[in-house]
Specification:
Order of helices and strands: HHEHEEEEEHHEHEHEEEEEEEEHHEEEH
Number of strands: 19
Radius of gyration: 30 Å
Strand content: 25-35%
Largest sheet: 11 strands, antiparallel
Helix content: 25-40%
Oligomer: single chain
Structural class: alpha+beta
Length: 471
């Protein structure tokens, strides 16, 4: 083997090694530039990509309602039979399409805002109109004896209930049930109390907040984490750590999300913070995501998850806190007997399901999940699913409730609040974020592999030729 040939092979091997080293060097260097760019653009500050998508949601948010109709009203009213329920839905409303209001950038690296509450009915995405009528539990009749437990007061309530011909069940339209109606029984009460009731009364044209969150400027790991809600870091509804406002509002999380993280987010609908755990990798419109789901442990009995003991308020529904799957939120609903579960009592103990018939829990249809782009922490798809139930308790002084022997949960409706990043925003996201990151990682891999192949190939050739020359 001549010198020129040997030198050429060694030179090519050295070039391959240099290319491979360059590819290897690009990994920490590229990661540094990615981290630097993300830290700049994920800060919630006017002029950043994050801010632009933070002020107005990057995709339409819809809230779908499935309402439970009582199929055997006569048997329930006359014999005290278990209600047989059948859901109908969805009745769909567009939500969260207005920009955040009263946005204020604070000197302590936080930003404050209100979320405007608005619901616009979408008939094209619904099975019927807002005037569809359902046979449901009577909200006012069930609530009144809980708010007024005194025997003499309940005797008076019974007079007004009977005079208004109100019963345990009533017929109401979708619009009345959700957004409010004037109740005939409450109209008879001579005291100055609200005469209208509804599951989400008041809602439209109200504001949720004040939220104050970290903007991430001083510490990127705090981006979007809630500093306070209504100027407090606690809720005054629960005890101990359960009362803390933890996590974000769910729309985004601090960047560089890891699979082994536990992500907390606060929901004013259920008056608490809750958490998600990694479930699986997903791909949405060419964007790789991590799916986090709310696990069974979030609603487990304190016997299974001791952290939940401070959410346990009453003993009659959860049997001294030994049952799972229900959260009594009456303390944050002005004493009204409202309990939150997952739809169709998913993950709930069998005893909780015994009060009614017609529940068919299905994990895929009824679980809550968030699909998060891990580098930026943005939530690009989510489904928040909850069931609203009224706790019906015996009230011997009230004729309409005399057939009720044991406390039980009466499902009223379940909702699915969902959003998926639209095509325009997805293209923007791919162009500004994921395509650049993927291109850099591809370049790193190509240089590393190409350089290694050249180095090993030419080095092997040189060694073979040299061995042949020696022979």
């Amino acid at each position: 083997m001549g010198c020129d040939q040997g030198c050429g092979l060694l030179t090519a091997a050295v070039i391959g090694a240099v290319v491979a080293l360059l590819g290897g060097a690009l990994i920490p260097l590229g990661n540094y530039f990615i981290e630097k760019t993300i830290k700049k653009e994920c800060v919630i500050e006017n002029g950043t990509i994050s801010y632009e998508n933070w002020v107005v949601p990057g995709s339409a948010v819809y809230r779908q309602f499935w309402i439970f109709n009582v199929e055997n009203p006569s048997a329930v009213l006359e014999n005290g039979s278990r209600p047989i329920l059948k859901q109908k839905g969805p009745y769909t409303y567009r939500m969260r399409y207005l920009p955040k209001q009263n946005i204020t950038e604070n000197p302590d690296s936080t930003i404050s805002y209100f979320l405007p509450n608005i619901a616009l009915f979408d008939p094209d995405l619904s099975v019927g109109s807002e005037n569809d009528t359902f046979t449901i539990v009577n909200l006012a009749v069930v609530t009144a004896p809980v708010l007024y437990p005194n025997s003499l007061m309940q005797a008076l309530l019974n007079v007004w209930i009977k005079a208004s011909k109100s019963l345990l069940l009533q017929n109401r339209t979708v619009k009345e049930l959700l957004w409010g109606y004037e109740d005939p029984f409450l109209k008879r009460i001579p005291f100055p109390i609200p005469k209208t009731v509804g599951i989400f009364l008041p809602y439209n044209e109200t504001l949720d907040g004040l939220y104050t969150v970290y903007n991430g400027k001083d510490d990127i790991s705090k981006t979007a984490l809630i500093h306070s809600y209504k100027n407090k870091s606690t809720l005054s509804f629960w005890e101990g750590p359960c009362d803390m406002v933890n996590g974000t509002d769910g729309a985004s999380f601090p960047p560089f999300v890891k699979r082994d993280e536990v992500l907390y987010f606060f929901s004013s609908d259920i008056c608490r913070s809750i958490y998600g755990e990694y479930d699986s990798d997903q791909v949405l419109k060419g964007i790789s995501l991590y799916r986090f789901i709310v696990p069974p442990g979030a609603f487990a009995s304190p016997l299974v998850n001791p952290d939940n003991v401070c959410f346990c308020l009453r003993n009659d529904i959860t049997k001294n806190c030994t049952l799972a799957g229900a959260l009594d939120i009456s303390t944050c609903k002005e004493g009204k007997p409202v309990a939150i579960t997952l739809p169709h009592f998913l993950y709930a103990s069998e005893e909780i399901k015994e009060g009614v018939e017609g529940m068919h829990p299905n994990k895929q249809e009824h679980m809550t999940y968030l699909d998060i782009e891990p580098t930026t922490g943005f939530t690009l798809q989510f489904a928040k699913r909850l069931q609203i139930n009224l706790i019906v308790r015996p009230a011997p002084k009230i004729t309409a409730l005399q057939k009720v022997e044991e406390p039980f949960m009466f499902p009223v409706l379940w909702l699915n609040e969902t959003a998926v990043i639209n095509d325009e925003k997805a293209e923007f996201f791919r162009t500004k974020v994921t395509n650049k990151i993927n291109l850099l990682h591809l370049l790193e891999a190509v240089l590393l592999i190409f350089g290694a192949v050249i180095f090993l190939g030419f080095l092997a050739t040189y060694l073979i030729c040299r061995a042949q020359k020696v022979k």
